[in-house]
């Protein structure tokens, strides 16, 4: 292999802080503030990734906040601020890797185990940091001037401006506070609907238009820009305005259920049609889009791999200059060996075979090295936002499953192990890309690499501990129990724990493959082994209705249907028209007393990437997928590529609820209006640090944290939130004739605010 030659820019480069200068860097306050901000932004990234299947870089907002916080505490150095953003930015990458993969366990029919989630996050994060240590000099230093690392360069500019006296923290804080207030008024007080929706009715049966009017989605749309946001909306339009109505049109006359559904299409709501058919099409499209993006990057991948191998060899030399002082290679090799032992042990407790466990752990290390190298190189050329992490994870899981299939490992344990391999590699690749941006920032400002690498280990560790808990909390706080039956199906308890509902105790049965009309999931069974309820998770759930306890006499129209309540008693379903537009259903006893209200259940945490990973694993190892639907999705992605449209964002829009893509598009449209004023006269780095981007980062953090706080209040003080629900006393706010228009109007007011902020100072100027 030829020796790598430094670029001319690297040879003559001088950092902002000279290598011989000694400034405070790895201090107690820089570590503590970095840890706290990392947990906050990591938690908000979990929330965001569950909803829309993507995250946004946290480095610049954290750098801005760090400058302001330290300025309030007294004089600080640029290296302290850099250390804080280095530690804090790890949370977003760990969150992305975890949420893209781990929730697939729920979709396979297993519980979300906190210890497994945390250990997966820790091992993946540590592996990503370790492998980037020897690659730093090859990719960050020698390729300076060739690999731009746009987010890292923009973050360095923010830190340098802050050192010289500029600060834009008010933009981040302003967006955060406004989004927090907006979220409380909408989801806490219920002053307007969160999901305004319009069914097109007889004109196009099955078609619906909707929008989730949340501030965090508007912020995401502004940051990703009009092109990607528009493509996502187009995917959503295909799903909700073409595919679902088409299935309803051609399937309503069928007299038997159409595979893989268990009931007639004419009895399905649009959300049922989406769950049973369109999600498979969307998953096939997302998988193909990810693979296409990976194939397109193959020349870059091979180049990066060659550079990575050279970097490992070159890392043996000991650097003496402060700005070239990395952690030693024996630390890297020893850490990788220790991780192999830890991973082998954990996998052994799942698979029960030592040889298989050692093989799976070795695959994690090998795939991890390859894709961390690839991730770093790609983020250096096109930025973190375009880094095909999901495509790399798909490739990892595909290769893993094919290897398992070749050696005859196709059981449910092998499926869990395949997911574990993909999860750890996904987290490592995400951390590899983010670490590269941090190390680039450090290279430009004159940080000590060794200190940054230690900071990254700290950031990964603390964020992983918090992220596992946040994911479990969001799932548990939104989990519901809904009546379910499977005549003729006798179940046995497969978990040790029990659940008590309305004074009755049930055991838990895991369904890992479709059977007797039951989808994979967890179910409550009685002493006779009968299925009584589904435990529908908060993450990746499928039930669009929920039972809410209520009391009082009800007079309405008997539907002729019956349904069991949470007390396992059978009730009549009675409809009551609260307005000409709204009909509410109640579960009523023979005396006319209501016991439960049948409410709509929104599914805010669809976890699209995790659903994709589960689909691939099942498709290869069980070979029981509706491949016709999956192939439709695959060819949709291929068609979009042939038309010159990026397949992956289109496929993500096809998979996500239309309400999500519509809200993101509003943010992208505002970005388009702002960009028209600049006419492309700003650099990419300036655009990354622009006031609109910083304000949008605040909207994302504020909206996400607001959602987490409301979820926490629901668990610890649900009755208090009920008393705050203004819509209970003024139903017209959420159910009246103008409720949808009112919600859209408030959302547009928020958009006008974002536009005015971004237009007043479109790029990163001093304030």
TrEMBL record:
<dbReference type="Pfam" id="PF03169">
    <property type="entry name" value="OPT"/>
</dbReference>
<dbReference type="GO" id="GO:0035673">
    <property type="term" value="F:oligopeptide transmembrane transporter activity"/>
</dbReference>
<keyword id="KW-1133">Transmembrane helix</keyword>
<feature type="transmembrane region" description="Helical">
    <location>
        <begin position="31"/>
        <end position="50"/>
    </location>
</feature>
<feature type="transmembrane region" description="Helical">
    <location>
        <begin position="356"/>
        <end position="376"/>
    </location>
</feature>
<feature type="transmembrane region" description="Helical">
    <location>
        <begin position="171"/>
        <end position="192"/>
    </location>
</feature>
<feature type="transmembrane region" description="Helical">
    <location>
        <begin position="94"/>
        <end position="112"/>
    </location>
</feature>
<feature type="transmembrane region" description="Helical">
    <location>
        <begin position="694"/>
        <end position="721"/>
    </location>
</feature>
<feature type="transmembrane region" description="Helical">
    <location>
        <begin position="228"/>
        <end position="254"/>
    </location>
</feature>
<feature type="transmembrane region" description="Helical">
    <location>
        <begin position="741"/>
        <end position="758"/>
    </location>
</feature>
<feature type="transmembrane region" description="Helical">
    <location>
        <begin position="627"/>
        <end position="648"/>
    </location>
</feature>
<feature type="transmembrane region" description="Helical">
    <location>
        <begin position="118"/>
        <end position="135"/>
    </location>
</feature>
<feature type="transmembrane region" description="Helical">
    <location>
        <begin position="388"/>
        <end position="407"/>
    </location>
</feature>
<feature type="transmembrane region" description="Helical">
    <location>
        <begin position="654"/>
        <end position="674"/>
    </location>
</feature>
<keyword id="KW-0812">Transmembrane</keyword>
<feature type="transmembrane region" description="Helical">
    <location>
        <begin position="56"/>
        <end position="73"/>
    </location>
</feature>
<feature type="transmembrane region" description="Helical">
    <location>
        <begin position="275"/>
        <end position="295"/>
    </location>
</feature>
<feature type="transmembrane region" description="Helical">
    <location>
        <begin position="414"/>
        <end position="434"/>
    </location>
</feature>
<keyword id="KW-0472">Membrane</keyword>
<dbReference type="InterPro" id="IPR004813">
    <property type="entry name" value="OPT"/>
</dbReference>
<protein>
    <submittedName>
        <fullName>Putative oligopeptide transporter, OPT family</fullName>
    </submittedName>
</protein>
<feature type="transmembrane region" description="Helical">
    <location>
        <begin position="454"/>
        <end position="474"/>
    </location>
</feature>
<feature type="transmembrane region" description="Helical">
    <location>
        <begin position="331"/>
        <end position="349"/>
    </location>
</feature>
<dbReference type="GO" id="GO:0016020">
    <property type="term" value="C:membrane"/>
</dbReference>
<dbReference type="InterPro" id="IPR004814">
    <property type="entry name" value="Oligopep_transpt"/>
</dbReference>
<keyword id="KW-0813">Transport</keyword>
<dbReference type="InterPro" id="IPR045035">
    <property type="entry name" value="YSL-like"/>
</dbReference>
């Amino acid at each position: 292999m030829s020796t790598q030659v430094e670029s001319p820019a690297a040879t003559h480069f001088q950092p902002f802080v000279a290598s011989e200068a000694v400034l405070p860097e790895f201090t107690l306050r820089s570590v503590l503030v970095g840890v706290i901000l990392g947990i906050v932004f990591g938690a908000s990234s979990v929330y965001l990734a569950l909803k829309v299947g993507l995250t946004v870089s946290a480095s610049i907002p954290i750098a801005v906040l760090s400058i302001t916080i330290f300025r309030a505490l007294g004089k600080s150095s640029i290296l302290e601020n850099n250390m804080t953003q280095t530690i804090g930015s790890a949370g977003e990458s760990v969150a992305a890797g975890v949420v893209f993969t781990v929730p697939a366990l729920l979709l396979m029919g297993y519980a979300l185990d906190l210890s497994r989630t945390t250990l997966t996050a820790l091992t993946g994060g540590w592996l990503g940091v370790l492998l980037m240590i020897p690659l730093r000099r090859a990719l960050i230093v020698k390729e300076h001037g060739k690999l731009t690392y746009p987010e890292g360069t923009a973050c360095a500019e923010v830190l340098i401006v802050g050192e010289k006296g500029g600060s834009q923290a008010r933009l981040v804080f302003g967006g955060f506070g406004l989004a927090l207030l907006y979220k409380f008024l909408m989801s806490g007080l219920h002053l307007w609907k969160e999901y305004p929706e319009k069914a097109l009715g007889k004109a196009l049966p099955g078609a619906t238009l909707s929008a989730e009017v949340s501030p965090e989605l508007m912020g995401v749309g502004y940051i990703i820009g009009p092109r990607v946001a528009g493509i996502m909306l187009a995917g959503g339009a295909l799903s909700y305005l073409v595919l679902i109505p088409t299935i309803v049109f051609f399937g309503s006359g069928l007299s038997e259920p159409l595979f893989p559904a268990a009931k007639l299409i004419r009895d399905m709501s649009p959300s049922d049609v989406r769950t049973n058919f369109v999600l498979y099409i969307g998953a096939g499209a997302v998988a193909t889009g990810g693979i296409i993006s990976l194939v397109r990057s193959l020349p870059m991948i091979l180049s990066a791999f060659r550079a990575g191998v050279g970097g490992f060899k070159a890392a043996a030399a000991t650097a003496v200059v402060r700005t070239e002082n990395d952690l030693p290679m024996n630390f890297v090799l020893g850490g990788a060996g220790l991780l192999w032992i830890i991973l082998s042990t954990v996998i052994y407790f799942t698979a029960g075979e030592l040889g298989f466990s050692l093989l799976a752990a070795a695959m994690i290390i090998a795939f991890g090295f390859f894709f961390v190298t690839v991730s770093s190189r790609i983020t250096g050329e096109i930025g973190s936002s375009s880094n095909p992490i999901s495509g790399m994870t798909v490739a990892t899981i595909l290769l893993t499953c094919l290897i398992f299939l070749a050696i005859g490992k196709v059981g449910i344990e092998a499926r869990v192990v395949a997911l574990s391999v993909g999860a750890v590699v996904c987290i490592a690749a995400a951390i590899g890309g983010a670490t590269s941006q941090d190390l680039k920032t450090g290279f430009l400002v004159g940080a000590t690499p060794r200190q940054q690498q230690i900071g990254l280990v700290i950031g990964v560790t603390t964020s992983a501990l918090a992220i596992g808990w946040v994911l479990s909390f969001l799932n548990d706080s939104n989990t519901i129990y809904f009546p379910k039956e499977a005549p003729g199906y006798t179940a046995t308890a497969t978990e040790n724990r029990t659940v008590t509902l309305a004074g009755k105790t049930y055991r838990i049965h895991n369904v890992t493959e479709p059977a007797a009309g039951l989808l994979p999931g967890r179910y409550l069974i009685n002493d006779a082994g009968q299925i009584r309820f589904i435990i529908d998770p908060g993450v990746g759930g499928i039930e669009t209705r929920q039972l809410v306890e209520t009391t009082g006499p009800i007079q309405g129209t008997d539907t002729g249907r019956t349904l069991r309540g949470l007390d396992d008693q059978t009730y009549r379903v009675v409809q009551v028209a609260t307005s000409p537009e709204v009909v509410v259903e109640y579960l009523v006893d023979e005396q006319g007393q209501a016991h439960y209200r049948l409410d709509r259940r929104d599914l805010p945490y669809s976890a699209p990437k995790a659903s994709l990973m589960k689909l691939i694993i099942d498709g290869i190892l069980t070979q029981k997928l509706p491949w016709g639907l999956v192939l439709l999705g695959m060819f949709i992605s291929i068609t979009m590529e042939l038309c010159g449209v990026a397949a992956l964002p289109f496929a993500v829009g096809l998979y996500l609820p239309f309400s999500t893509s519509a809200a993101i598009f509003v943010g992208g449209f505002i970005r388009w209006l702002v960009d028209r004023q600049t006419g492309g006269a700003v650099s990419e780095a300036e655009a990354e640090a622009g006031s609109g981007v910083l304000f949008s980062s605040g909207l994302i953090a504020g909206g996400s944290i607001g959602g987490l706080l409301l979820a926490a209040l629901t668990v610890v003080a649900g009755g208090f939130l009920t008393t705050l629900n203004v819509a209970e006393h003024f139903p017209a706010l959420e159910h009246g004739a103008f409720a949808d228009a009112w919600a859209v109007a408030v959302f547009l007011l928020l958009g006008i605010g974002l536009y005015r902020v971004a237009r007043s100072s479109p790029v990163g100027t001093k304030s």
